[in-house]
Here is the input.
Amino acid sequence: MAARRPGAARASLGAVAVGVVAASVGMVVAPGAAIADDYPTWNQVEAAKHSVAAQKALVARITALVGTLQNSTEQAGVVAEQAAERYQQAKLALDTVTQKAAALQAQSDAAGKVADVSKTRAALLAAHLVRAAGQDPTLTLLLQGADASAADDLLFQLGAMSRLTEQSQQIYDRAIQDQNTARSLQSQAAQAEAVRQQAADSAKQAYGTAASLAAQAQQAVQAAMQQQQTLVAQLADVQSTSTVLAQQYLLGQQEKQRAAEAAAAAAAATARQQQEEAVAAASASAAASASAAASSASAAVSPSASQSSLPPSPAPAPAPAPAPAPPSAPSAPPSGAAATAIAFARVQLGKPYEFDGAGPGTWDCSGLTMMSYAAAGVGIGGHSVNAQYDTAQSNGQLHPLSEAIAGDLLFWGSGPGSFYHVGISLGGGMMIAAPTFGDVVKIQVVWGSPWGEVARPGQ
Here is the structure.
């Protein structure tokens, strides 16, 4: 989703870049290579000043070039953010399997100690039985003869040995069971460690890809800013005005394009809502008709005598039209965790965006939302856009986008598992976020087409 980000456009006339992203291979073409031949020369600028038609054509050409640069940079940023999100998911998976491997290893160690104790007990008892069996109990009984007391003692000893034999079997069985448990846990721990190592390798590879794309996106922004200075100067020259006015002209053109895009998105949303309402009304009408038909059939089969002799009742008066719904109230100010999260995020305004940033000096989008709600004592799923959405879904904290209030999390992407950007709603169509490479934490318009659900942490 390469939707335009208004906030970034204001920072550097769109935070544009000349790199064209080849998403299929995860690379960015060298800045300037794709469209360098299309740039106007200063000779063309000078010649256009003497013809109104040429002036208009060159202004349109420069404006189109700026738009192309914007689209290229935004696409580069999205690809880099998607790679960064894949790394964050790989890192969370590594953390999970690491904890599991550590827990299994601890269980294995504890089971090994228990098995050692059981084996020691069994060995001591076996040695005791061997020593006790060293003398012949029958011969001892005959030699003691009429000594009844000694005979009783011997019989008691024989009975005790029998009980010890039974106990030794139980201890032996327990020792075998403990040993098997320890071996099983050792095997599970070894497997978990292998999985952990694979996850570590995946996270390392994802980090390398994301870091490379992040660096390329950053370079694209810097190259585009330099190129824009030339374009703005050429525009100012051909219009015989200052560079400040030329910048304002370009910003005005961008505002017009954004307004047109927003109007188109709003019209599409209205059309979808009207279609859904029409389907719902048709379903309700069909259900009502079926119910009325069933009631008529029932009355025709078994009419009462009293009813048959009475004139038909007049039809009930039509119900009055429902009063129009009151206008929606403005969004209430945030409170509780949402207010704390927004206050924390506001303190970060102006700090630069950085890949894998989670404060205190730099931020990426999910790092900002994670730490903002952590300041309120609310865990939202870790340093990952998709993990934050999944956590809200598991906790029953998702709401329709149309019901968004201040403090809600807004998501961008094609759906669960594919989100790449998140921001904190401020209400009124505004949000606070760490937008993208080359930008800073800022308050901006809710741009493009966010996902149709928002998360409400701490509700």
About this structure: The mean pLDDT is 73. The CA atoms of residues 87 and 208 lie 9 Å apart.
